[in-house]
Structures are given as structure tokens and as C-alpha cells.
Amino acid sequence: QVQLVESGGGLVQAGGSLRLSCAASGRTFSSYAMGWFRQAPGKEREFVAAISWSGGRVYYAEPVKGRFTISRDSAKNTVYLQMNSLKPEDTAVYYCAAAAGKAWSTRSSSTSSWYDYWGQGTQVTVSS
Predict the structure, then answer these.
(1) What does the alpha-carbon distance between residue 68 and residue 111 come to, in Å, rounded to a whole number?
(2) C-beta atoms surrounding 36 within 10 Å
(3) Which residue in 14, 65, 73, 122 could disulfide with 6, CB within 3.0 to 4.6 Å?
């Protein structure tokens, strides 16, 4: 069992930055692929970014490419999402997710059903 706890959300003006963190419990964090998703009010949950268990492969949704960076620190059992040049349309609840011991592909990593564990989410609000 893995527990995921997100933090770092908040209110920021357009053009600003935030860094989200997702702390994972469990000894096998380094074997999990990790992803970030978001859900805006009235919309379905959508993929944001993913990182392989080794950190060697990453994948981003088009709307955030070039602005967001996903990274992981296995020593701290934490995955990060650095968000720069934020836009009002980035406003959403952001969730991190973990996939246990699965073969990586960009298609799989962008699919919510591929993930086994989810955090509770952290609110990000970008004002115009």
C-alpha cells in the first residue's frame, strides 16, 4: 500500500510559479512511475505530466509543455511539479498518482486507469 500526500498548492497571479510536492510512503517508491493530473470545476480529470521509476523518462501534456517540469527525489520519496508561467486555465485541483511495477509507455502514463494509488489533491488557483 502506498499513501500519497500532495502539498504546495495555493493562490498565485498569472505569470507566477508554484512547486507542488507529493510525498509517498513505502519502501518501494523508487519502483513506481509517478504522474500528475488535474481537475478543474465541471471538467474531467486530465493528465499533466508523468515520470518513470528511474526518472529517465518524462512526458507532458501539450498545454503545459515548456512551462511545467516533473522531477523526483527517491531519497526523499517525493515527486515534484514545478509550474512556471501559470495561466488562469491552470486553475484546478492537482493530484499525484503512482503506478506500481508497470512497463512504461507515454500512452499508458497519461491514462488515469494505469495508476494504482492517488493522493487527495491540492488546489491551485491562478488569478488573472
Answers:
(1) 18
(2) 26
(3) 122
Per-residue pLDDT tens over the stretch 56-74: 999 999 999 999 999 999 8
Whole-angstrom distance, CA of residue 128 vs CA of residue 120: 26
CA 65, 44, 19 angle in degrees (round to 5)? 40
Looking at residue 124, its amino acid is V
The DSSP bridge partners found for residue 100 are: 32
Q: What is the dihedral of CA 110, 83, 79, 58, to 10 degrees?
A: 40
